[in-house]
């Protein structure tokens, strides 16, 4: 909640309220993609089939645990900016850019490739978010968070592709 000085000045954390609307919408879009990715990772962790099952199964577990932490940071940044986070799967699916994967057995190569491509897509989206926020608004806190998430996605894309040879 903003204090009375901030209410009068029409800002949150010193950032003009209209700017926080747009930044929060952007962060909610990232939150939605992270949830689609999180569920897909759980799905592949369970349904994976292939000769490196144990290793990939455990690696994906690390990825979804890390994604859960990022989800929390993004949702809490939205709160800090005075807005509400999207919270239902229906809302997430409506605004997410990533596509879900259906359940059922999944070949390990296809699973790993799918996750690597999602990390690439996330990285492309986040780079756009960073340049837009950096150019239009004075919110280095959000930019810093986005850079952390971007670097995680870039690292994940690299590590996942190593399984593909
Ligand atoms: Fe498990």
Verbal overview:
By secondary structure, this protein is mainly α. It has a single domain, classed as Ferritin (Up-down Bundle), CATH 1.20.1260.10. Helix content is 75%, strand content 5%. The protein contains six helices and four strands, in the order αββαβααβαα. It has helices at residues 4-9, 17-47, 53-80, 89-95, 108-136, 140-162; strands at 11-12, 15-16, 48-49, 106-107. The protein has a two-stranded antiparallel sheet with strand order 1-2. Helix 5 (108-136) runs antiparallel to helix 6. The protein starts with a helix and ends with a helix. The mean pLDDT is 95. The chain binds fe (ii) ion (FE2). Fe (ii) ion (FE2) binds next to loops.
Heterogens: fe (ii) ion
Give the distance, in angstroms, between the N- and C-terminal Cα atoms.
50 Å
Could you report the average pLDDT, rounded to the nearest whole number?
A: 95
Computed over alpha carbons, the radius of gyration is 17 Å
Oligomer designation:
single chain
What is the CATH superfamily? Ferritin, core subunit, four-helix bundle
* Low-pLDDT stretches: none
């Amino acid at each position: 909640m903003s204090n009375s000085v901030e209410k009068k000045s029409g800002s949150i954390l010193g950032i003009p309220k209209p700017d926080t609307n747009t930044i929060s919408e952007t962060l909610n879009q990232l939150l939605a993609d992270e949830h689609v990715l999180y569920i897909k990772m759980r799905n592949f962790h369970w349904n994976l089939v292939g000769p490196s099952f144990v290793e990939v199964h455990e690696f994906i577990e690390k990825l979804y645990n890390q994604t859960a932490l990022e989800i929390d940071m993004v949702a809490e940044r939205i709160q800090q900016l005075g807005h509400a986070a999207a919270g239902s799967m229906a809302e997430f699916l409506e605004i997410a850019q990533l596509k879900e994967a259906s359940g059922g057995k999944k070949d390990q190569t296809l699973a790993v490739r799918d996750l690597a491509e999602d990390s690439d897509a996330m990285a492309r989206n986040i780079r756009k978010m960073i340049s837009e926020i950096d150019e239009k608004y004075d919110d280095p806190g959000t930019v810093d968070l986005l850079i952390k998430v971007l670097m995680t996605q870039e690292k994940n894309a690299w590590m996942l592709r190593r399984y593909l040879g």
